[in-house]
């Protein structure tokens, strides 16, 4: 079993809970409220820019020149996706540029992006990558599941279709391959840190969806 | 009004809510449950090590050699405090080294420490310092308030007394002086970022106390 | 006069010395020894990977999402250029993959790349960008000059032609525009640091060419 | 043989060249020109502040809380030493605060400090430490050698005596112990990077002394 397969298996129960989360079930069924979807999209856009920054830091730490290319491109892609959201889904769902600009990060989004940035900046390359993996991998698998379950006439069908993009799945497989390679060469303390970083991100991924469903906000505001 | 006084005033309502939080009121009254205090102490110890790391990054970015000394010493102090907790209050309240080692960071502690690390690593020196300020300043002021209100026979009196340490208050004044100096020299976009970083930390400070009171844990475990 | 134009003017004499350097004069004349050109190409390839890493760090620090895209793409481009060298000019001039792998960085290349990395990691976004500018700008201008002066039958003509690429010049103009924008918003201490970082890189750029001409190596080996 | 002993042995020839360098021989004999000593002291002061910054970054990356304390203290010590130079030896040898402030870093000092900062910021904790080791260890050993050889009436005797400080040697032993521990736990690619970082710093240490002896400056000024 490869290192990444081991991570997947160790976090299988959390993945199942993620699939079963009402946000994802209702998105597939097409019954998710528009408010929750809007909340999610805005936070997703905030998230993607921070994700791009964390990927750029990982690019800078790559052990091989190929990794600089791989993660600089991923950083670029993350922000390009964010730009597309504004001109596509956000417009379709009535979120103006100003709505976006004046909606702050929720605690869940701020927590997840803070962790990704902290982890990419302060940890070694393998650990940085492990923290970045769930957003690629869990997102791709949840997306595939939602796409397969999506009901006819789903108002979110265009969004759900983006999950099935072969280009995205190919990128995910390439990231997994890089992480397996660096994990195989890493010492055991590093592999333990990698598993911890992956776990934190997988949990924060669940909390991100849950926060969108709860439409949570700062208790301090 | 100095830059830091401006920050304080802008966040006055949140400070008042922090003073009024049941955790702090009950700590002053001596009625806080031992479980909540234990929970708090363990998270505080986790927090201090991360705070020391974030301070060390700020030291590395200091605009003047004096700042390297100021924040390298603060980093050292944070971890020395953490060491003292283990040999002092933790022992007194029956928390073994193993209890501590096996108690993971709560979401509130993980969120706050992730933010401090992300902010110190990725932002400029003035913004890094602004994020580090609430833990110095709000903590000192809340402590002074609790110390003043503490009831006779308070089982937490020894802990409450540490808040009154003149050495700690002198360090806080010196940090404020440094931040006022760098804020005065900074451009307006930087001052805006400083205010945002301060606000986030002030909110996460409140959420840290609230989490201890709620004895919160990961919804994903 | 824009901020970047001011930098250019302040360093005009050094630019003139760079144009007049025998390495560049002989490259234009076609009289440069193959050994010196080989030495240069190998160090250039080493340089480009480090330059890509430094650009990726700058991308992570960008004040706007557009900057993440701009510098993540530049990071990608730098390493893509390095890859092309191996399959193109290096092959044409008889440098095998093994020749490259076993040729260490010279002191000049190690000095310049160390500075770029140190500056990108430890300084604020505007200062990081200013350190990265000379390699874009001076290189483009020196290249334009060499291209204009190149003699018929120049054995380095294919190399010299790459300097004239409109795509490269467009990228340089976009970088200058970003730097002018952030410099305009920056405080005066930051602008002073920007000028220092630019100056160091401009000097290290000259020393890089001079080192190739001298075929310099470590005095300690 | 411990990891660090292995590093020492692999770089034995360079160490011998460092001992034999005219700067060190003349310092021991008391025949070094005052100009060369002044040049050295000024660059040493510049160096120490950057060294303190690089140590602070290493502190932030420490794998254990003890390492945060160890290297935050070392960062503090480096700058405290720099402060002492100004009030002690610099005054004794007629270097005013303004002389110092207006003397820029030489290429050798700029190269070495850029490398230390780049290495501490961009590399993992073990590699960061390995780059910081030569300044502790080689300096301590060279100092012991010079102290043993110093001639009666040496005008630099007070300076030479600082090398013999048991406090400094104890700190060096503690750093070696930490590096041996992390090297023992590290994978082989990390140990290779550690050896490379150590080698670069050892070479830059020699070049720093050589530059002082040559009273070198920027060829671009």
From TrEMBL, chains A, B, C, D:
Alphabetical keyword list: Hydrolase, Thiamine biosynthesis
Lineage of source species: Bacteria, Pseudomonadati, Pseudomonadota, Betaproteobacteria, Burkholderiales
Domain (Thiaminase-2/PQQC) ranges: 9-214
Reaction catalysis annotation: 4-amino-5-aminomethyl-2-methylpyrimidine + H2O = 4-amino-5-hydroxymethyl-2-methylpyrimidine + NH4(+); thiamine + H2O = 5-(2-hydroxyethyl)-4-methylthiazole + 4-amino-5-hydroxymethyl-2-methylpyrimidine + H(+)
Its biological purpose: Catalyzes an amino-pyrimidine hydrolysis reaction at the C5' of the pyrimidine moiety of thiamine compounds, a reaction that is part of a thiamine salvage pathway. Thus, catalyzes the conversion of 4-amino-5-aminomethyl-2-methylpyrimidine to 4-amino-5-hydroxymethyl-2-methylpyrimidine (HMP).
Family listed: Belongs to the TenA family.
Annotated organism of origin: Comamonas piscis
Annotated protein name in UniProt: Aminopyrimidine aminohydrolase
GO function term, MF aspect, one: thiaminase activity
EC number: 3.5.99.2
Superkingdom assignment: Bacteria
InterPro entries: Haem_Oase-like_multi-hlx (IPR016084), TenA_E (IPR026285), Thiaminase-2/PQQC (IPR004305), Thiaminase_II (IPR027574), Thiamine_Salvage_TenA (IPR050967)
């Amino acid at each position: 079993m490869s290192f990444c397969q081991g991570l997947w298996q160790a976090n299988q129960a959390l993945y199942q809970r993620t699939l079963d989360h009402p946000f994802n079930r209702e998105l597939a069924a097409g019954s998710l409220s528009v408010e929750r979807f809007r909340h999610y999209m805005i936070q997703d856009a905030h998230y993607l820019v921070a994700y791009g920054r964390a990927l750029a830091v990982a690019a800078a730490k790559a052990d091989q020149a190929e990794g600089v290319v791989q993660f600089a491109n991923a950083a670029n892609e993350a922000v390009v996706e964010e730009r597309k959201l504004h001109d596509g889904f956000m417009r379709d769902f009535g979120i103006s540029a100003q709505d976006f600009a004046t909606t702050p990060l929720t605690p869940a989004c701020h927590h997840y992006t803070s962790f990704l940035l902290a982890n990419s900046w302060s940890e070694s390359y393998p650990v940085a990558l492990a923290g970045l993996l769930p957003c690629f991998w869990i997102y791709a698998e949840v997306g595939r599941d939602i796409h397969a379950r999506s009901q006819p006439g789903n108002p979110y069908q265009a969004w759900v279709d983006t999950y099935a993009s072969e280009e995205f799945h190919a990128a995910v497989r390439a990231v997994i391959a890089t992480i397996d390679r660096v994990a195989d060469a890493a010492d055991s303390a590093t592999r333990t840190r990698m598993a911890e970083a992956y776990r934190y991100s997988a949990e924060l991924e669940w909390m991100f969806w849950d926060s969108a469903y709860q439409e949570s906000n700062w208790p301090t505001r």
